[in-house]
Amino acid sequence: MDEENIKNLKEALRLSPNNTLLRLHLAEMLLKANQLVEAENEFKTILEIEVGNIKAKRGLLKTYYEQKKYSTAIIIAEELTNSDQATPDILLIYAQLLYKENEIRDAIELYQKVLVLDPTLTDPELDKNLRNFNAGGDVEQNNFVADLDNSLFEKPDINFDHVGGMDRVKEEINIKIIQPLEHPELYAAYGKKVGGGILLYGPPGCGKTHLAKATAGQISAKFISVGINDILDMWVGNSEKNLHELFESARRNAPCVLFFDEVDALGASRSDMRQSAGRALINQFLSEMDGIEYSNEGVLILGATNAPWHLDPAFRRPGRFDRIIFVQPPDLDSRINILEILLKGKPLNDIDFKAIAKKTDNFSGADLRAMVDICIEEKLRASFKTGVPEPMETKDLLKAAKQLKPSTKEWFSSARNYALYANDSGLYDDILDYLNIKK
Ligand SMILES: Nc1ncnc2c1ncn2[C@@H]1O[C@H](COP(=O)(O)OP(=O)(O)OP(=O)(O)O)[C@@H](O)[C@H]1O
Ligand SMILES: [Mg+2]
Fold this sequence. Notes:
The chain is mainly α. Helix content is 56%, strand content 6%.
């Protein structure tokens, strides 16, 4: 077919040799057909007639490159680039040429520019070479994505029973994501759409990550926790690709809980987001979450953040994080419950759970755990002397509690302001309720 076309074009050109448009067409056909010497001649002929013909110059560059005439090719590439006449594909060739000339830094810079201009223009070979070079330099390689299917999905050995309090949050998770997974037919019967994720927010240490993991354990699904730095990549365009790989891997590992920790970092324009990856990465995340192109069936999406106010509102639309739940510091009953969980199976002597819970107002679950850890260390020391495990007692735990400061208060001092002044359609009413502030 190409041969036929080439023959016809040649015939046409014989009749009107000055028709550069036609000749350009022929030259490009020859290039495509890998008839490089002829292509080179045709491009040159055009340039003899029209010195400034950009398309012919670009074509000539490509034929030189294909013929491995690198030193000549690089001159044209440089000229096109300097005069702003290089298209992304030309820049890619230029980057390849620079690499071959051992101008690695320049090659990297240019290659990154190409990826910004056109993320589809990747060159695996060049990519690998430039990365290898960088591995010895200041940028680490992204092993996270490479390891995705191997080890990063875990099978948690905890379930809801290991999470104290948080009854409302457990119920929401149950209704919104667990039941749809277990009874898809019921949802279908009512024509109710399944999908979307839950965003947990609140002060540190109150069990967001713990609960996400337990959610996976609850339904014997796999679990993976992802932070923004696991996805970010030095190559523009690659962060989005990593994110896509992550979702794909989660789909292969379904049923699983895909947990995004500190998700606000992804949705906020941060200075540590390299280059301008921010917006593109957000868009990638949103479209993966929408699950239109690829089904997210069996992939339960949870996110957590200490700073929901920094999250781009687009994340909260239906089908995305359309349930936003406040994970508050454990109340008295929850603290009792958490203590029971934390102390279960340990050497104890008649513990007054309620007394300890009363003395640990504003403690987070993590604070309670720290308290228990301090107490255990004390008891271990005593046990070394006696040679038997010394049981923990109420007074030991109260003593340990005194050494700690509740860590949740600080968070509320800033959260309060957002709840008061940026309470977009009542989004943070739960915080106001918790603080006993009238709306
Ligand atoms: N409700 C709870 N029940 C049992 N243990 C809890 C609970 N909340 C917290 N913990 C304990 O505290 C530890 C820290 O909690 P976790 O990491 O889940 O907090 P977080 O809300 O994710 O905090 P951050 O915002 O800092 O990420 C947990 O590993 C767990 O041992
Ligand atoms: Mg956490």
